[in-house]
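Severity: low
Component: inverse-folding endpoint
Summary: output formatting inconsistent between runs
Steps to reproduce: submit the following structure tokens with default settings.
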């Protein structure tokens, strides 16, 4: 009797920790938080948080600040659509806190969070 219970418990635990399947390359949209030792991308409609790697040539500090509600605020949160490459599940980002890394190859759009929130009302 104990073996089926252990199996069911493990099955339940594993099903709760699964992440959404994602393509390894494509267009991704979501919220980006940039702050000291943080570069977090949260895809729209999920609770997942990925480490975002960007280069200055793709998204500059000036472009970020232009779209932050409090110019130069820390943290800066914006809504991004981007073309990128997503890693497999592993340990990524600052102190390996993130289970995926999204490498940004091209910025499609950047919007202040206030624009997204007002369009959802």
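Observed output (run 2 of 3):
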């Amino acid at each position: 009797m104990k073996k089926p219970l252990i199996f069911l418990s493990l099955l339940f635990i594993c099903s709760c920790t699964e992440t959404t399947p994602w393509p390894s390359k494509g267009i991704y949209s979501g919220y980006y938080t940039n702050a000291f030792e943080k570069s977090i991308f949260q895809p729209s409609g999920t609770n997942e948080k990925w480490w975002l790697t960007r280069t200055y040539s793709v998204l500059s500090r000036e472009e970020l600040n232009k779209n932050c509600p409090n110019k130069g605020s820390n943290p800066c949160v914006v809504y991004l659509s981007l073309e990128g490459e997503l890693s497999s599940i592993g340990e990524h980002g600052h102190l390996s806190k993130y289970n995926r890394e999204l490498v940004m190859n091209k910025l499609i759009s950047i919007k202040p969070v206030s624009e997204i929130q007002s369009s959802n009302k």
